[in-house]
Amino acid sequence: MNSQKDEIEIDLREIFIIVRRNILLILAVTVVGGLAAGLFSYYMITPKYTSTAKIYILTNSDSVISLSDLQMGSSLANDYSELINSRPVAEQVAENLNLDISYQSLLSCISINNPTATRIIWIQATYPDPTMAMKIANEFSAVARQQISQIMNVDEPRVAEEAIVAKHKSSPNNTRNAVIGAALGMILIMAVLLIKHILDDTIKDGEDVERYLDLHMLAAIPEEGGTDNTEKKRKKKKKIHGIRKDSSHV
After folding, report:
1. What pLDDT was estimated at residue 60?
2. What is the pTM of this model?
3. Whole-number Å distance between alpha carbons of 213 and 1
4. Does one domain contain both 75 and 102?
5. Distances in Å between the alpha carbon of 217 and those of 10, 78, 221?
6. Which of the residues 19, 101, 104, 171 has an alpha carbon 20 to 30 A from that of 225?
């Protein structure tokens, strides 16, 4: 049990040493990754805007609504959502707005939501042009209400809220993309450094000798320190010989 703990502590220490030695490289790659992702998101991704129209589901035309009507209206929300997100509705909307796109492409711009425990359906249109996004949402609402009334033989749903022009884009989120790019850059460079360290099987110090070769180190020779001391002694000796020669010459 103790050996396993020691091994974990050694591994964590090695990781910390790797990070400390390459901290500048890790920071540089992180910053570059964040800048690259942020600039790509800002200049290369087309901004899109979202507008929302809301319709209210009715089960009858009476002014008094019973509990059964409320329950039935909630259960009909799924049926209404399927009819709104259908080919005939999308084709009619494209024709009314003179849009030269397929109904599949138009449906990909639409999302239908029904908040829990409500009889209100949200029709959200996402498009590069904010004005066209508003028109698509309102036109889907108008066409869908007519289709629902004709197909299901029920009262036409009422408009709870008309879509308006969005003032702010819904995507992309440049700040979030920059943070994701920075995180990916940091993870990538750390993974490269760790893999490089794992694949490096050279012996670097006494701990590696004991760990991998199961041998006990008897002594260590400081190569750089010994070389410097020898060089200093040689220079000092030459200096003494030079003084002796000058004194004998006098």
Report:
1. 53
2. 0.69
3. 22
4. yes
5. 19, 76, 11
6. 19
